[in-house]
Design brief:
There is one protein chain. The chain has 246 residues and is α+β, with helices and mostly antiparallel strands. It contains 7 helices and 11 strands.
Length: 246
């Protein structure tokens, strides 16, 4: 049984210009977010890893998005450990998908390609988000539909809590968390700006019905063309959904 890469969900999609404006606002708000407030949250949570490896599974963490600096380092270790990130943001009228970057490859059981015998094989070279987890700083919708800042992922679902964290360590984690989130949003902004330019120059547009049709092909095991954004440009990839339930 093939695991669907994406569910076909039709949602109200903001225009590219609107999306860029929303990201720019989030970047501004992130920069203004008091580092002291984030430090207080980190100190209060007091997270301590218990080596459960839940964060290394797609069931718990969906996927590991790679910033360009992560991608360059990971590719030097092994070229076949990355794949186009879910979820494809656009599909043009020619049936070509576009996605904002790469993610770490996963095994058939959903665990990270680098997880072996309960340990990370590239721990010293792991991506930045893996170094920071479970700390984050982005807006997210809660169960009541209200958007607010989320600072910790998987609270009370893994690890130990209320450990002693020094002021210096809190500041280091908080600063790096803000740095990562800003870098991620900046990457998304450049992706959207590049898409807008590419679509305008080649007279293309996103077509939802074509997107849905190509996703169905992908879920049937057919290969699709994906343009992956990295280092300011698109890399063409042929992608096949080869994951199967064990």
């Amino acid at each position: 049984m093939v695991i669907p890469l994406l569910e076909l969900v039709i949602v109200a999609r903001p225009s590219i210009d609107e999306h860029i404006k929303n990201i720019e606002k989030d970047i501004f708000d992130l920069k203004e977010y008091p580092i002291e407030k984030l430090c207080e949250i980190i100190r209060e949570v007091g997270f301590e890893c218990d080596l459960c490896t839940k964060c290394c599974t797609s069931e718990f963490n969906d996927h590991i998005f790679l910033l360009d600096q992560d991608l360059s380092r990971i590719r030097k270790l092994s070229a076949d450990t990355v794949r186009p990130a879910p979820y494809f943001e656009f599909c043009d009228n020619n049936g070509i998908f576009y996605v904002s970057g790469y993610a770490l490859q996963t095994k058939t059981d959903g665990s990270c390609i680098f997880l072996e015998n309960g340990k990370c094989k590239v721990y010293e070279d792991r991506p930045l988000i893996c170094r920071l987890y479970p700390y984050m700083l982005h807006r997210e919708e809660d169960e009541f539909g209200k958007f607010d800042w989320r600072q910790i992922s998987g609270l009370n679902e893994h690890g130990f809590y209320h450990a002693e964290i020094t002021d210096e360590e809190c500041k280091r984690i908080a600063a790096l968390t803000k740095e990562y989130e800003i870098a991620y949003l900046t990457h998304k902004k450049y992706f959207l700006e590049t898409i807008r330019k590419h679509f305008n120059e080649h007279r293309l547009k996103h077509v939802q019905s074509t997107y849905d049709r190509m996703i169905r092909k992908l879920n049937k095991g057919e290969k699709v063309k994906v343009m992956v954004f990295t280092n300011g440009k698109f890399e063409e990839q042929l992608f096949e959904n080869t994951l199967h339930v064990l």
